[in-house]
Amino acid sequence: MAEYAKSNVKGAFYALGAMGIYATHDVVVKYLGEAGFGAFQIIFFAALLSFPLVTIILMRDTEADNLIPRHPYWMALRMACMVNTGVCAFYAFTVLELAQTYAILFASPLLITILAIPMLGEKVGIHRWLAVIVGLIGVIIVLRPGSSELSLGHFAAMFAAVTNAVVAIISRKIGAEERSVVMLMYPMLGNFAAMAIAMPFVYQPMEIEHLGMTGIIALFGLVASFLFIQAYRSGEAAIVAPMQYSQIIWATVYGYFLFGEKLDAPTVIGASIIIASGIYIVLRETRGASNTKPVSQTRLRSETVTSPRVSVLMRILKVKQGGNS
Description:
It contains 13 helices and no strands. By secondary structure, the protein is an all-alpha fold. It has one domain (about 1-315). Helix 2 packs across helix 9 (about 210-235), helix 4 (about 100-105) packs antiparallel against helix 11 (about 245-260) and helix 8 crosses helix 13 (about 310-315).
């Protein structure tokens, strides 16, 4: 029993470390955005600089098979949604306060719960439905329509939450049948191709330090992913998954000291409601209220070109998950 508790504590600490690195990753994105570089350009160079590290990972996949997706239409939709998630989330980070962006993106688990009904055949009871409704009320509180003007950044963050939920559900739907290397490679190539097409229209000359920052984004995304792998290797999903919400603490600290941001009451109240709803849904799933566990098993950090799906990396690296989930 003591060893079991120790493993969960270890998993929680790994996850907290991963979330701290992810938050730092997002701070660099915001800094580059405020320096005048658009989301397309940031993602393009981050993707380009990710290729060497990801190629090493892909070489670990020794399964004898081709690289043709077994579900090409689902894979195409997943790839398109991942491109959108990355662009919209990166854009939101560059124009909104960090804490407010996170609060809106945290709505993704609520949307995953809803989408799991038609796409995975999940049965959602009254408790989780109430959690979803309460969580969406929290989103409205953060956005406070009518009392403040909604910007393109707000809509981008909401759109990123929606498409990230679609990515998570599709990944759960086809992940067991698709090769891990296919799940990882196609979104990377799709992101790179889409950003390359946009580059002639958005490119701004970059100093060497700015280019280096895109390398930091690529590196931090992969390092955080590996820490998350260790977290899921050590602890249960019920313990590890809620750790993503610690990003709001990092966002508050970074926002205050680096960007002069201050939390207002609606953001604090709304974010608290969203986080409580998300944690409740995870706990309900892991206590047997779910057959497919769509939220607790999706490794809740948004999937982008710099934060690949952790479960895919675990399969390629042949890492076994710890805990009981």
